[in-house]
Amino acid sequence: MKKTAAIYDRWLSTLGGGEQVAFAYAQTLHELGYAVELLTHKKLDITAAEKKMGVSLENIGVRYLPEATSQLLSGISEKYDVFINTSHLDYFPNRSKNGILSVFFPGLLRLNPYEYLKRALFIPSFRKLFVYPSRYEGFTHDQYRDGKIYKWLSHEAGIAFKDSISQLQITLFFKSMTFAVIDQITFQLDDESITPSNRTANHNDNTIEYTFTLNGTKNKTLKIILPDHPYSNEIALLNLTIPSVRYTLYNLFKKLFPTYEMRLHGGPGVTQLSDLKSYDRIVTISAFCQKWIKNYWALPSSILYPPVNTTNFSPAKSKKNIILHVGRFFVSGHNKKQLALAKLFKHMVHKYGITDWELHFVGSIADGETHHSYFQRVQSEARDVPIFFHTDTPFTELQHIFSEAKIYWHATGLDEDEEKNPGAFEHFGITTVEAMASGCVPVVISGGGQKEIVTAGSGFVCESRKDLVEQTLILMKDANLLKSMSKEAIKRSDYFSRERFKERFKALISQP
Which helix (H) or strand (E) holds 187? Predict the structure, then answer.
């Protein structure tokens, strides 16, 4: 009988850097002969995941769990021979025979009174008090326009609810009000077909408001299913309203505390040292994180650098004068500092006459008005200088931009104090490795895991804004240096390849 293994990741559907690690664990365990399952809560688009992450899930199961308490999740871990918890800040106790806690950056155990009350009392109480959609599924991307957020639908999109509601109104925006499409849109509550009790069209703004009378939605998903039609990819969810005081309070909370609103959908709770010690080993993604695990938890850990699919990236035969930055636009946490980089590039253009170079930002925009406002500030700073934005970029286009760029900028942690606020720094930096594999010379901030990636000869590690500008100018003016460092960057990137990860993980899991 095959041994069983599971990898838990609450955020699996986001398909980010942490999810690359989760998929690599799964593939490696499958190669070792385990029957493997990925555990998560939100529906995963398997095809999109395989395409974006360059993985095959043909022999790997995906199991969807209800939103559950730590106690229930802990019980699920007991069913597997190997259980890996790689979900950021979800530190529930392990009960598997071989439990591995995969840590991207450690959360604090010793909390100040306010932080303790927020995690132990305020947020759990608000989750019970408010009524709101617990997650959105099957939406291709968000677009912030004229003060409104347009959530563009795929063929099948879903809005999940943790609570039971009796009425719901949604407004859909149509680029083209084609009734051949509108009349064929269907709705389901889980797998049961439902019909709107009312439908009101507004031809002035190309919207239709649907009203639903529902009989219980607890832990259910309202599905919007579009017909096969050329115009079906031009429909967006523009508004959602639940006629309830609890929903009104939720919206007020979201407006007053935009960063805390994210915690309603998951995030750190109160962790006991015994929860962490229940795992057989702790692994982390850099020496930087290992240091803070020791500082925060006084526990040992092993370094397992995350896997980067370096074979997906290669330099173009003819590169262009492009500085590239890849990272999501969001505020708080380890913000990627796009605004600061836009200002630095603008300064270089005006002071040094750098008119034959371009700065390209690639990255999605986090949900929420605060994050979209930040993106607009970066756009405003970019006026009248050659700065370009790619916010809804297919992977093939990302590969192309990587291949053509000559220099890669990374500034997470800029102007921050690493000893006072280590969480503001990049914990590792997968995009830096991808850039190096593409022949980009990295010019990065000396902080977090970046110092472990960029070695002498393969790029520059900078202590300040001034340093970052000066090192960039050196590369711009010395084509031979740029070319030689590009070759070294490609060589260095191989150290973080998927094959290296598999070798290290197999050696680690074989240890007693």
Answer: strand 186-189
